[in-house]
Each structure stands twice: as C-alpha cells, then as structure tokens.
Design brief:
elongated, 14-stranded antiparallel barrel, Porin, 478 residues, 6% helix, 3 helices, mainly beta, single chain, disordered C terminus, 3-stranded mixed sheet
C-alpha cells in the first residue's frame, strides 16, 4: 500500500472522528436565537429575542414585541489541522462546509390569563453526521510467517451521528414592572449512533489466506424531560437574570449493540500474538438513559447611550461515571471468553463565561460583538476517541473551545433580519486511533504516536424574526 495513501487514510479517520465529536462534551457550542447568536449566547440576563425560551424564560414577559422566530439558515465551515498528523513534520488540513437547522419559536397568549405569556419552541441542541468508506490494495511482505510478498487489501468504514432535539413550552409572568418569573419545559429526543468496521485481507504466494475483521456498533434513542426555571430583573438601563437548568428526567430509551471479531491466518506463534477467533453478537431493545447535569446561569445587560454591554456565566455540575447503555454479557464462540459492550459517560464540572457588546446606530440598525468560553466537561481519564474496544465513551473531546462572534441587525416594520458570523477554535493532543499495515510483519499492528489537533469553526448566520400581525400585538388563543 502506498505510504502516502496510508497516511492520508489515517488523517481522514482523525478528521471525521474529531470534527464530529467536538461538541459532545461542550455546553455553549450552539447559541440559539438571532441576536443571541451574534452575542455568543451571553444573554442570560439580557436576551431580547425568542432565544429567551432557552436562556431565560422569565424574559419572555419583558420582550416588547414578541414574534415568530426562524433562525434562518446557519452555515458552518469546519477547518481542522493535524500537526505531525501524517508523521513527524508532515501536517494535514481538512475543510468542511454545510448547513444545519437551529431554532424556531413563536409566542401566544390566553385571554383568560391576561398577565401571562406563553411560547412554543423547537431547537436542535446538537447535530452531527458522517458516513465514510475507504478501500485500497497493495503488495508487500506484511506477514512474517509466510515467505515472499502477499497481495493484501484493507477497507475502513466509519459512521457517526448525534441529534438532540428539544421541544419546549414556555410560561412567563410579570410579578411587577421590575421582576418576572418563567419556566420552560423541554422534551428531549436524543439519538446517537456509532459504527466502526475494519477489514484486512492478505493472500500469499503459497496460496495461504489471512483475514481480519472487526465491527463495533452502538445505537440508541432516549426521551427525557428537563426544565429551565428563571428570574428576571429590569429597571432603567439595567437588566439581570438567573436561570436554573434541571438534570434530565429519563422517560424511556432503547438501543442496540453489535460486536464482531474475526481472524483467520497464521497462528499465535508466528504472527504477533494473534489467535484464530470468531466472536459475533447482536443485541437490541437494550435499556438506554442519558444523564445531564444541574446548571446555574446568571447574566446582566447595561445600556450606556447607544451602547449595551452584556455578561453571562454558567456553572454545570459534574456527572458521575455511569453506563448509558450496556449489552447483556455474552460468550465468544471461539474462545469461550465473556464479553460485554458498554457505552459510558462521565463529565466534570465546568464554568463558562462571556461578554458581548451592542451598538445601536438608530432604531433600524445595530452592530454586535462577543467572546465566550466553551470548556470541555470530558473527564481527563477518557483517552478513547472511537469505539474500538468493548467499552466506548459517549463524550470524548477534551479540548477547550473559545467563541468570537459579531454581526448586524436590520429592523424594518414587518421583519427583523440578523446577519453575522462566529468563530470557534480549540487545540488538543490526541493518540493515533488507527493504522493500516506499512512494514514487514505489520498485518495487525496497534496504532502508535501522537498528533496535535487544531479545530477552527466558522458559523455564518442569517436569521429572521417576523412579528405577528403588527407591532406590539401577539397571537391570542382562547
């Protein structure tokens, strides 16, 4: 196999896996709302769009012009650089571009509840997807036990998906002209799947055949409830807020596991410790439950002339190590050993904070800028990046991310348009997760070495807020 092809294959595996997992241990990766996106989500005490259903439900009672919100189309450009990714002194780069949904929300009132405000919402907290396959053939002496060169080939398939949709119903109430309270009840529908399948085949000059096959697959869907409970304060040029997010209450969840190990070729004495093996097991309808932490957020906004300054901070409690899903123990057909596939999650406590700036040129134009941290909650003990063993981790990337955002808002009579962009970046040292044979006697060599991962992510935002009927009017239901 050409060495450059081998190196490229290794890096592609890096990029697919690391790119798609960059959000799984982070809480501030996805901002919601129109202005809120440009302010990197640092609006817990000062949110002014329907992102309030997520950031501070109590602020719904303070919004002057509730509207239908469609966060338009968000496009994302991912760029990842792996220093020494193809070997010492050989760097590789990867670029991806695509669109994804973010949020839709609307408000309504009930005539018999005069001072109460309501909203419905749909938002995507996380969405990841990949489906990749690569194959190559070559000639070389990769098995010591056989004389001469072998004709050999290998293929690799990696699939990864995560989607966590939240459906919300918000209630808010003005206690007086200064204070308001609110709560959003979210229904979370979370689906996660991961498949890793590798195959290596070799055929010798003496008509011997070696075959190595590994498959690891995990798939689950879980349903749960969680609440955001909040308090908002507003007087003169100052607004402030406090939000408590509850852990997820699991309703139900089901999943499946698939585990295969096949090897047929030279025995243990002649081929780097490999024995002939046949292990295959599929299980479905397995119980699955996903845990989330308590969170406490606070923030404030202060107006000075045409300027407004925003600040927010949020603390997330740790999540103790637990089994999100596990198979029943099963016995390998060829070795009589006991196996059990487990999906584990474990998260540390983290605190994120950020600042934002808003400048209102007039009642039609405004400019925004912001900066926020997005620290990873993944426990330092997690070293595995893809599901290669019996135990896999639901959250894996330890790199801390940082967000910078900005843009412009145009407010006309019947439409509010938000346009801008945000940039996130992070660095992390990683272990090499996979390696195809390169040298003599290298048919099933364990991966070696480390590389540095550098993530760069750009979001391009185009959002719309459409008032119901006319200014200061809300759609009402009896």
């Amino acid at each position: 196999m050409n060495k450059y092809i081998q190196r490229l294959l290794t890096i592609v595996i890096f990029l697919l896996n690391l790119n798609l997992n960059a959000q799984d241990g982070h809480y501030w990766t996805e901002p919601h709302g129109t202005k809120s996106i440009l302010l990197s989500g640092v609006v817990i005490g000062s949110v002014e769009d329907l992102g309030t259903v997520y950031y501070n439900p109590a602020r719904l009672a303070k919004i002057e012009n509730p509207a239908f919100l469609l966060s338009g189309k968000l496009y994302q450009l991912d760029r990842i650089k792996i220093e020494d990714g193809a070997g010492d002194g050989l760097d590789l780069n990867q670029t991806r571009f695509g669109g994804y949904p973010n949020m839709a929300a609307g408000t309504f009132k009930l005539k018999f509840l005069k001072d109460h405000f309501f909203s419905y919402s749909f938002l995507t907290r996380n969405t990841l997807k990949a489906n990749y396959f690569i194959h190559n053939d070559d000639v070389g002496n990769i098995i010591d036990a056989w004389p001469g060169e072998e004709t050999y080939g290998g293929q690799f398939r990696f699939q990864k998906g995560l989607k966590d949709d939240w459906f919300g119903l918000t209630w808010a109430y003005n206690l007086n002209s200064t204070w308001s309270v609110g709560i959003t009840n979210f229904v979370s529908v979370r689906h996660q799947n991961e498949l890793l399948a590798t195959e290596l085949q070799a055929y010798s000059a003496i008509n011997e055949l070696a075959f190595l096959h590994n498959t690891r697959s995990i798939d689950y869907t879980s349903f749960g409830l969680l609440w955001k409970i909040s308090l908002a304060f507003e007087v003169n040029n100052l607004s402030a807020g406090l939000t408590i997010t509850t852990p997820k209450v699991n309703l139900f969840g089901k999943g499946s596991t698939y585990y295969q190990d096949f090897y047929n070729g030279p025995d243990d004495a002649n081929n780097n410790g490999l024995d002939k093996i046949y292990v295959s097991n599929y299980q479905d309808k397995l119980p699955a439950k996903h845990h989330s932490p308590w969170a406490i957020g606070f923030g404030a906004g202060y107006k000075i002339g045409k300027s407004k300054f925003h600040f927010s901070g949020e603390w997330y409690q740790s999540v103790s190590k637990y089994e999100l899903m596990s198979s029943d123990p099963f016995e390998g057909q060829s070795d009589q050993k006991m196996y059990e596939v487990k999906l584990i999650d474990q998260l540390d406590a983290v605190f994120n904070a950020g600042v934002g700036y808003e400048y209102n040129v007039n009642n039609k134009y405004a400019f925004f800028g912001s900066f926020a941290t997005d620290f990873s909650a993944v426990h330092p003990a997690v070293k595995q990046y893809i599901v290669t063993k019996e135990t896999a981790y639901a959250s894996m990337i330890q790199a801390n991310m940082y967000h910078v955002g900005g843009g412009i808002l145009l407010d006309i009579k019947w439409l509010e348009i938000t346009a801008g962009l945000s940039h996130a970046f992070a660095n992390q040292d990683i272990d090499r997760p996979f390696q195809f044979p390169e040298e003599e006697g290298d048919f099933a060599k364990e991966p070696e070495g480390q590389s540095k991962m550098k993530i760069g992510r750009w979001k391009f935002v185009l959002g719309f807020s459409v008032p119901f009927f006319k200014k200061n009017k809300i759609l009402e239901y009896d």
